[in-house]
Write a structure and sequence with these properties.
Keywords: Membrane, Transmembrane, Transmembrane helix
Number of strands: 36
Strand content: over 45%
Distance between the termini: 145 Å
Mean pLDDT: 77
Largest sheet: 34 strands, mixed
Protein name: AsmA family protein
Radius of gyration: 38 Å
InterPro entries: AsmA, AsmA-related
Number of helices: 11
Pfam families: AsmA
Shape: elongated
Structural class: mainly beta
Length: 637
């Protein structure tokens, strides 16, 4: 019979052993499911449920989760959870974590996952979990804290499916995702897409390299993408460093399509209508910026080269662009100022009018802060007197500063500065243009009126607001002053303006071909969209041409008259007004019929010209030191 002491020993040792045996017999990792669900739900901010849980302990421990379900946020359909995963297996290197506190995951296997991505508005979706610890520039914290991201060796996805319903992007797509590991070949990731994006059919295929050591900077991850979104085609080929952090890239990117405006939903950058285009370049990421460099492309007949860098920031990204063109056709860029590019139909509201009335969307100007420098070495066009162009443009918080917009014209140039700022649904504009010895031969050479020589100086200013270029001009205030001393104009132009019949016939035959200009002065006022003449005189060796009237920029109507008075007796001279009437799109040029029948003969000197010449001495001519206008100014005094 056992002693009392022996019985106590057996009691104290036997009960724990028996309890351990019973515990091993009935043990289940499923006991921890409620704890895991609570922790996961708290971390993701939405309900997470698990059907099964199993753990295979060891130096490398395997965690297997069955029937994982991550719900969408409250208010979304219950039958469309964010994710359903029948089986998720994760292998964790426990020994490495104990030794170095690094989370090393040799591999993850996801079987038949189904993901529903739903966006009902720009900031209303079921897939946003929070911003984490990254700063506003998208960079990791600078406090030296270790990264919480694990080091993943291999990711395997078997028969994955994604349904993306993104209302802000007008998209509904089905994606198939899987990894392939053919025998004797590197593993690869394959993603195919089909459906609609931006209300256009979309098909695409992405092939990534072996998903091994995703964070190994010494093993760049290869990627190849071919995408067709409606008529737009995108091709991408290259490698990415550290894909989980997008630590760098060396990618060749190609875009092509009939209209760059169709790229807006793909890039997130508002782009106006353009002619057919092709853009190719190098895409990389470094120092917190995504760069599209070594750009080589064409926009219609215009070549495009340079670099575009995007720095992700909150609330707006920053875009820095330095672009240039060897040759530019300004018609290709018409969409950027509200017009219709070459080969594109005019917008319906603009039919029958000349000034572009495409509305400027102020919110779209606030999509990013933009800093652009653009240079064009040669400007092409059948009726284009401009030689080259330089633009420096800044958009900050929706306010636009163009300092400067410069065009070369012969030996001179046109310098302008514009400031635009949001004013409700419209834009407020202040602008100034300086004409510095602009070559008249370039201006006259593109008109059917004839030829000319000389240099024009002057300035223009405008202050207005509106929702389009046409609306701004139609209610603007400002003025225009132009002057030219010396040079010559086609005698045909001068004589026809006064119906000097005999000389006009000789001019048409080329004799004489030109007439000298002593002085040209134009001083015009702009008041609420109407241009009125304060002074308009052309003093030639034979005639004095004057102009008067108004030009209505809002209605696009002409009500103007030109008159030539001969300085000496000319046979066949019939001084009368030449009337410019009609609209910008359909002007009518004709003589004043009543006066034509009533008048004949010659007139001499300035005495017959009834014009407000007293304003001449106050005009800033802007043509440098030249006294050839002094005589006209003295007569005005």
């Amino acid at each position: 019979m056992a002693s009392p002491r022996l019985r106590r020993v057996m009691l104290w040792t036997g009960v724990p052993v028996l309890a351990l045996v019973v515990l091993v017999a009935v043990w289940s990792w499923a006991w921890f499911i409620p704890l895991v669900e609570r922790q996961a739900s708290a971390a993701l901010g939405r309900p997470v449920t698990i059907g099964d849980l199993d753990v295979d302990l060891g130096r490398v421990t395997e965690l297997v989760v069955g029937d994982l379900r991550i719900a969408s946020p409250e208010g979304y359909p219950d039958d469309q959870p964010l994710a359903i995963v029948p089986r998720l297996a994760v292998r964790i290197d426990v020994a490495e974590f104990i030794r170095s506190r690094r989370i090393v995951i040799p591999d993850i296997t996801v079987d038949q996952p189904m993901v529903n991505l739903i966006a009902r508005a720009e900031r209303d979706n079921n897939y946003t979990f929070g911003s984490g610890r990254a700063d506003a520039d998208g960079q990791p914290p600078a406090d030296g804290a270790p990264s919480a991201l694990p080091e993943i060796g291999a990711l395997r996805v078997r028969d994955g499916r994604v349904h993306a319903q993104l209302a802000p992007l007008r998209s509904d797509m089905q994606l198939r995702v899987e990894t392939r590991e053919p025998e004797g070949q590197p593993a690869s990731l394959h993603v195919t897409a089909e459906g609609r994006y931006a209300d256009q059919p979309i098909t695409g295929e992405l092939v990534g390299g072996a998903v091994l050591s995703l964070r190994d900077e010494n093993s760049p991850w290869p990627i190849r993408l071919n995408l067709a979104n409606g008529p737009t085609e995108v091709a991408l080929d290259g490698t990415v460093k550290d894909p989980l952090r997008f630590g760098g890239a060396n990618i060749r990117l190609d875009f092509a399509g009939p209209d760059a405006a169709l790229l807006t939903p793909l890039t997130g950058v508002p782009i106006p209508a353009t002619p057919p285009y092709r853009l190719a370049g190098k895409l990389d990421y470094a120092d917190g910026a995504i760069r599209f460099s070594d750009i080589d492309g064409k926009l219609g007949n215009t070549d495009i080269n340079g670099t575009i860098a995007v720095v992700p920031r909150d609330p707006r990204p920053v875009v820095n662009a330095t672009l240039k063109s060897r040759r530019v056709d300004l018609e290709d860029l018409a969409g950027f100022i509200g017009g219709a590019p070459k080969g594109k139909p005019e917008p319906a509201p603009n039919r029958g009018r000349v000034l572009p009335d495409t509305k400027v969307s102020v919110p779209r100007l606030q999509f990013a802060d933009v800093h652009l420098t653009y240079d064009a070495g040669q400007i092409r066009g059948q009726a284009m007197p401009l030689d080259n162009m330089h633009v420096k443009l800044d958009i900050v918080d929706g306010a636009i500063a163009v300092h400067p917009l410069r065009f070369g014209v012969g030996q001179g140039r046109i310098d302008s500065q514009f400031d635009l700022s949001p004013a409700g649904e419209a834009l407020a504009l202040k602008g100034k243009v300086d004409f510095q010895r602009v070559d008249l031969s370039r201006l006259m050479g593109v008109t059917p009126m004839g030829e000319g020589q000389g240099a024009i100086g002057g300035s223009a200013r405008i202050e207005t607001r509106g929702r389009s270029l046409a609306e701004m001009l139609g209610q603007g205030d400002g003025g225009l002053t132009l002057a030219m001393a010396g040079g010559n104009l086609s005698a045909l132009l001068v004589d026809l303006s006064g119906l000097q019949i005999g000389n006009a016939i000789l001019s048409a035959l080329g004799l004489p071909s030109r007439t000298r200009v002593q002085c040209f002065i134009a001083d015009m006022a702009l008041r609420r969209g109407t241009v009125s003449t304060r002074t308009m005189l052309i003093d030639t060796e034979d005639s004095l041409i004057s102009g008067r009237g108004e030009i209505d920029l809002k209605a696009e109507k002409l009500d103007y008259a030109l008159r030539t008075e001969a300085k000496h007796f000319t046979v066949g001279s019939l001084p009368t007004d030449i009337l410019l009437r009609g609209t910008f799109s359909n002007p009518v040029v004709r003589p004043e019929v009543l006066e034509l029948g009533a008048r004949a003969g010659a007139a001499v000197g300035l005495g017959i010209i009834a014009l407000p010449l007293a304003i001449l001495p106050t005009i800033q001519l802007g043509i440098g030191e030249d006294n050839r206008c002094e005589g006209l100014v003295r007569r005005a005094k």
